[in-house]
Amino acid sequence: MLEVGGEGSYGITYLGLDQFENRPVVLKQVRPSKGSLARQLLEREASILQSLNHPQLPAFKEWMMIGRHPFLIMSMVEGTTLEDLIFEQGQRYGEVDSAQITLQLLELVPSISKDSFILICVFQTSCCILLYSTFESPHSATNAKELSWQEELTLSPSLIEIIERLLQLRKPYSDALDAMEDLGVFLSQARINYFIPLRIAIEGITAARLDITVSATAAATGTLGQ
Fold first, then answer.
1. Sign of the four-CA dihedral 175, 176, 180, 186
2. Fewest C-beta atoms under 10 Å: which of 33, 53, 131, 144?
3. CA 14 to CA 5: how far, in whole Å?
């Protein structure tokens, strides 16, 4: 192991080196204090990785025990995390961008599309982070009343319904394909709502330019006001 790559509430990841292939790998360990649930989640993650085969997703390498502690070893995928883009590079994502990225992530996992656990994980690691990238609390930290995400974020009703279904606060999606279909409908409608006012604005500009051209032509030919 070379260094700690990241820490979460349930586990710690380390950056390591596969000495046989001379390639970097990631080792994931559960926190012993989290008990059997954390190990079950890690085993489930290992099982899911074994079912995947995509260049943009880490590949399962090995499951090993170091002492009494289990480790999941996977390939390392180079790239910038959402946290880096938002907190270090200052990127901001609105609801359309967030829905589009979430849809792209769901398209990567068709082979496990019936696993509701995956739907929740994909949403929590993408859409939640993205949507909160534009959030600014209007209250002071000391006097702020704790609000739900529905109250804190200004979102379209249709997107709120999709999110609540992804989080299983309403009737959950039966698989990722159902969620992808609703996200696609939302994005199509969002584009329509964007382009209609844009078209009206463009037509308004065109009409104004036409009116100016007609007026100028009439003035030049002496027909203005006739």
1. positive
2. 33
3. 5
Task: Name the more confident of 95 and 197.
Answer: 95
Q: What is the pLDDT of residues 169-191, one digit of tens each?
A: 889 888 778 888 999 999 998 87
Q: What is the Cα–Cα distance from 59 to 46, expressed in whole angstroms?
A: 10
Q: 198 to each of 100, 155, 156, 210, how far by Cα in Å?
A: 20, 21, 19, 18
The two tokens of residue 169 are: 């606060």
Q: What angle do CA 100, 183, 98 make, to 5 degrees?
A: 30
How does 143-159 read in b/e, with b if 16+ C-beta sit within 10 Å? eeeeeeeeeebebeebb
Q: For the sheet containing 23-30, what is the strand order?
A: 3-7, 11-18, 23-30, 69-75, 60-66
49: helix, coil or strand?
Answer: helix
Which residue from 105, 124, 103 is spatially nearest to 167, judged by alpha carbons?
124
